[in-house]
Amino acid sequence: MRATVLLVLLSLLFEATLARHVDWVPCPHSVSPSPTGKKPVITLAQQFQINIECNILQKNTSFDIIEYVDEINNKAAVFTTSSYHSVSQFYNYEKYEIFTVINGTCTTKDMRANGSYGFIGYTPGKSGGHVMSVKDLLMFGEEYNDTYVGPATVRGIPVDHWTTCVHAPAFNITVTMDYYFNRPEYKTSSGDVVPVRLAINGTSPNTRDPSGKLQPGSHEFRHNYEFIYYKPGAMDPTIFQTPKGVVCPGRINIKSLPNITDQFTLDGETVHQSSKSVDMIKEFYDFSAKMFRFDRKLKHSTRRWNRNMTAKYGAANLKFIHDYNAGLEYVIDKEKGNCTIHPIPLLAWDGEQMPDHHHLRMKHSYEMWEGQMFNNLNTSYEGQRMIRDIPADVWVTSFPSRWNKSHFVTSEVYFTPANWTYTVENNENETIVPVATWMKFGSGNKSYEFFMNIFEFYNGHPDEDSFDISSCYDQPKQKQGMVFRVVGNYLDLVYEKKRPLLKAVKNAIAKTANISSIRVHDIFFDQTNVNYVDVWFTLLEKPTVTGDVLNGTKDNTSLSAAKANLEKAVKNNMVITVTYDDQKIKNLKVRQGSLLTSEDALDPRVSPKYIYTTQGFTAGAMAGLGVGMIVLGLLIGAAGAFFIFRRMGGEIPYRLTE
Length: 658
Fold this sequence. Notes:
4 domains, alpha+beta, outer membrane lipoprotein receptor (LolB), chain A, 12-stranded antiparallel beta sheet, 658 residues, Alpha-Beta Plaits
């Protein structure tokens, strides 16, 4: 039905648009020029909006058109409203594409194909097409053998009347066109001389009827185009873009999606239009560590996810930690400390369900951000839209819903442009950073959509304590504090290099102990000797639940077994490999046999620091301390004498003898 209606509408446009895409020859002059012989000067803008009432008189039909033409930036858009439909057309001349949108559905055509050139034509070029000039668009000017007839009146407006006649031998079409422009003394809203009416009369071979049947013979046609509104000048560039959430299959993607590294943190504001509510969310993502966390404050809501979560946990401020090493989800109440451990849900947004429907794998960052935009032929660059006053680059795609394959999800993602900077952690500046996402599920009355503003985006590894699950192990027997020594100086190994060192140490301990890295907690670096750095940490007991991640470990190594694995490695010259931010790699040696528990050594994380650091002073250090105390005593005595003499009002006896 939609195709039939569109054919009817396009058949009404055919006689007007065909005139712009065929070869014409002038007709013999049938109208005498103005007896004064003086032609008014008509200057047409290269950028304009024009509203037209199109009256197809021989068919007793009218429709309205709004045209936006920008010769300078090579853009055009046409919005047509009739009794049948509202049709929007957007022209990408560089790639010879026309996007036609009806009721939210878009089709893509090559304007060079027969019958696909659209309402506004093009001029071919070496590096793509170009929007037809305004004179060619109106077929107005000396090259079209126009003739100035003289003054006239149209709709009560004093006008100058022009006419031309052209013939297309290839199509056997003869057209007479009469142009009417307001006279200079009549002031329009734009203050310029503007077109008021275009009358087209002629004969044309019959075309196909709405059913597609070719009609024999020819017919006369009479069209009056009333130019109701004309505004010259630059326009909002978003006018020339397809609407939000509209995917045009077959569209050429002119700009590749930005890459997102496999680790990030962000704060998000999720806006739900249907429920008129706003949620805040935090996300921590680290693919190399196989960890994901999101924080949500649950509240009673009609939305299914909130409804299910509040039924299970109540209205609480929760953090959800997904450990893809073991396939486990830790749900922790941030205020009360309550903890629940179970397998990661198969429909977790950050996981991809495997074909066996029993296991998950962790999604890469691009899958998290752009849904299925990567490797999706429907993914395309739309242009720029203003997001929080940022001219953000926008990409759009659609794909089947993971919950219901018969429904489609439409997704858009917004990035800062390359010429903008985004200040992130440590006052570093980044470019091309995501600032928002939008998604729509389903269609019609059953659709649901949300928009998420993104703040504080950091494109790097989250802090190691982001995935802290220690509150899930509140019994002393479920955790063990430990320490070993690494050969090296604190300034060389730790100072301003803590983040990469933490990551390397945590991964090395987890791998050596044969446990998930999430069970290595509260790492702390200390130095009690210039030649060593003490590495303190806590191991957590194994979970009592088995996960469902694909190719993940079951994390069955007990706390005692993990401790034994570490003891064996430290006795055999354990090495920790660190990759620093400048990509330099350093192998750190663990001092042989240096592994101790918190029961064997004073733990600075729970004991006053001075108690721990006075242990193990050398004889030289103690001698130095004694000398220092003598000097300190002399200084205190001198200060006391100074105070006493000043209180007595006497002079301080700098000289003992004259």
